[in-house]
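Dear Dr. H.,

I hope your travels went smoothly. While you were away I took the liberty of generating a structure for the chain from your last submission, since the lab meeting agenda had it listed for discussion. I wanted you to have the full record in hand beforehand rather than looking at slides cold. The sequence, exactly as received, is reproduced here:
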Amino acid sequence: MKKLIFLAVMTLCVAACNDTENLFPEDSLYRITRFDNQPFLGETYINDFDYEAGNQFLIDRYSQPVTGGCSSFRVGGYAARNLDWYIRDYAVLVVHTAANRAKGRYASVALVSSNPFVNREMIAGGTVNDEMTANGVTVSNWRNLFPVFTTDGINEKGLCVNTNIVVHENGVREGYIPCTGKEGQPKTSFVSLPRYILDNCATADEAIQKCSQLNLCEALSGPLATEDSHIMVSDKDKTVVLEWYNNEMVYTEYLPTEGNLFKSAEGMPAIMTNFYNYIGRNHIDGDGAIQFEDLLAVHPYAMGVERYETLRDGLENVTDIESAQAQISKVYYTDFYDLDKKWYTENGLSCHLVDGVWYYPTGTDKTYSPAENIVDAVAKTFAPGGLQESLISRFGSLDARMTDLDNGIECENEWYTELTDIFDIENKELYVLPQQGWYDNNYLKFTVR
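The corresponding predicted structure, in token form, is as follows:
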């Protein structure tokens, strides 16, 4: 078990309750702290921002998803998640936002990741210049955009959130409806939903009530156009998973049970990967294990079933930060490439089901060949031993693959865990580890008080 070294402790004090708590220097947005031991991690502070402007930008223009495969759980006073994404040089930015009592906004510390506005070059520069642009957006507008790109976070009330992908039950979006929910209400981008919850909600019940009234818009296109997202929200008393199914918000509630586990009424533990919990909770046995064939019969594009089972095994042993970190590390995404792990339901990233036939990728040209079943398809795609062995089996050598990447030839199957974070709900603390600890295996701690 790893020894924790807390390399950074950032305290966000909100004791004074002015209309706007100007706790940070006015130019703090343009001062992005870089951590030498974590070259893909940065930190910034924002006193105030225009949520509506950032949200409208996402609705109008945004065309790249900001979350990946991903796994998360809640147990006892802790929540944890991995954000899984393509192996690229995107960085993670820790964003502190001050409370704004006039707007009803809570203080929080949150994460922005897998995002074209947060890249290695920007963080390496230390201080940015207002003339710099990204996708036509000046740096002076980042004040509004950084917070609304939140993927994870915790606020001063001890409410924490994270989002994961969930694939449609039929694998396609037929008659795509860009917005769903309450017509006549202001449009809310799903990408900005974690920020909305952190700013406006003190409890999981309040998140249910407020999110059910939103006119929610996906704001997702491009490589993940057949996928939506769901969101896990936890306070000290309960956890809920919010999902949008058949254009209606549904939710699964998890309450404390025996030991330190949180479970749904059906007995499903509070774990969220990449299938609908709303469906999965009705396809479990008495121990909470997924009934594999039953689930795939009604939800054939369910992903992350094996990761769910891996996290379920031993979840009751999570009692502190260290054990939470050890548990979530069991599903680092590079394990996907190890055929011996038998992560068959990651098919949304590797294989495709068309008219009842599984197809597996045959190379970087994105051509596919048929396979008898998903097990056969996965076996033809990956190799025992993990990521390096898989790349060698498909491309001949790692050097050959690296040359392809240098020439801009990408493959949809090369993923890893870009970000791991642990929430200590009672103490309102966030522990962060980028890139599976490849640069430094010590979590950094950030606190909101």
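Two observations you may find useful: The longest helix spans residues 51-61. The two ends are 29 Å apart (CA to CA).

With kind regards,
E. W.
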